[in-house]
Amino acid sequence: MTATQNGVQRVSGRAVTSDGWPVPFAVVTIIDAAGQQIGGTPVGDDGSFVVDDLPAGPCTVITSAVGHTPAARPVGGAGFGELGRVVLTRTGALELPAPGRWEIDPVHSRISASAFHLGITKVHGRLRTFTGHIDMGPDLAATRVSAAIEAASVDTDDERRDEHLRAPDFLDVLRFTEIRFDSTEIAQHTADHWTMFGDLRLKGMANRVALDVVYHGAGPDLWGGERAGFSATTQLSRDDFDISWNQSVIAGIFAIGRTLRIEIDIEAVRLPG
C-alpha cells in the first residue's frame, strides 16, 4: 500500500465464488474503525469494484450478496488497498449434505480431460459413461467417494482419434475395461473448498491422486428429493499409468502432452432411507 498525495485511500477488488465465477450482484460497504460507513459501491458485471476518496486510516471492507456469507477484509493506513479476489461462500455450502448414500446422477454430471497438442493448443475429451456414489458421513473424515468409469466411453469428437485412445497405446480398453476411483481422505480448507485424496486405478495401475474440490451446496430438487453439487479438478501424468505413447514432432515438442487436466462436475441425489 502506498500513500496518495491527498491523504485518502482507494480500495479495489473482485467478488467471486470459490470456483472463480464473478458475483455481479454483490455490494461493497466500507466502515471505519468506529463502525461508521465511509463508502460503498455495487460491483460490476465481472465482480470488480473500486472505491475512491476514502478517508485515510484503518477500515474494513464488507462484501455481501444474497445467498452468500459476507466477507470482511481489513485495510490499514492511507494509500491503495488492492484486495484481489474476495471469495463469497454460498450460504448453502456451510452445511454438509445429510449423512447417507448419495448416487451420482450421470445425466447432470460430467467428466472431461484435456491435454496439449503439439505444445500450442489443447485436445478436449469426455468420459461419457460412469457411475458412482458418495457415502456421506456425519463429517468429512467419515465420508467416502467411489466411482467407476467405462474406459471405452472416451469421446473427443473424432472417431479415428478415439479408436487410437481405446487401443493399447493409450487406454487398452479390451484388457482394462474400467477406470476406478476410491477416496481415502478428505481435507477441508473452508466450508466449500476441500482436497480429496484417493486411489485411481487406470490401465491396471493404481496411484494416489489429489482432487481440488469445490462444494456448491445441497437442497431440494423439483421431484421431492435432495441434490448436492460439486466440482473438482486435478492433473495426472500419463507416465504414472503406463500411457507413454508419443511422437516427437520437433525436438522437445510432442504430439500429445504428458500431463492431463481433469475437470469434473457432479450432481448427486440422496437415496431414501
Explain this structure.
With 273 residues, this protein is an all-beta fold. It folds into two domains: 8-92, Sandwich (Immunoglobulin-like); 95-270, Lipid/polyisoprenoid-binding, YceI-like (Lipocalin, Beta Barrel), CATH 2.40.128.110. 3% of the residues lie in helices and 57% in strands. The protein has one helix at 159-166; strands at residues 8-16, 27-32, 37-42, 48-55, 59-64, 68-69, 71-75, 80-87, 89-90, 100-104, 110-117, 121-127, 130-136, 144-150, 154-155, 178-190, 193-202, 205-220, 226-237, 248-250, 253-254, 259-270. The strands form five sheets. It has an eight-stranded antiparallel β-barrel with strand order 10-13-14-16-17-18-19-22. Strands 3-2-5-7 form a four-stranded antiparallel beta sheet, with no helix packed on it. It is elongated and about 70 Å long. It starts with 7 loop residues before the first strand and ends with a strand. Mean pLDDT is 87; it is low at 1-6 and 247-254.
What's the topology here?
Layout: E1 8-16, E2 27-32, E3 37-42, E4 48-55, E5 59-64, E6 68-69, E7 71-75, E8 80-87, E9 89-90, E10 100-104, E11 110-117, E12 121-127, E13 130-136, E14 144-150, E15 154-155, H1 159-166, E16 178-190, E17 193-202, E18 205-220, E19 226-237, E20 248-250, E21 253-254, E22 259-270
Parallel strand pairs: 1-8
Antiparallel strand pairs: 1-4, 2-3, 2-5, 5-7, 6-9, 10-13, 10-22, 11-12, 11-22, 12-15, 13-14, 14-16, 16-17, 17-18, 18-19, 19-22, 20-21
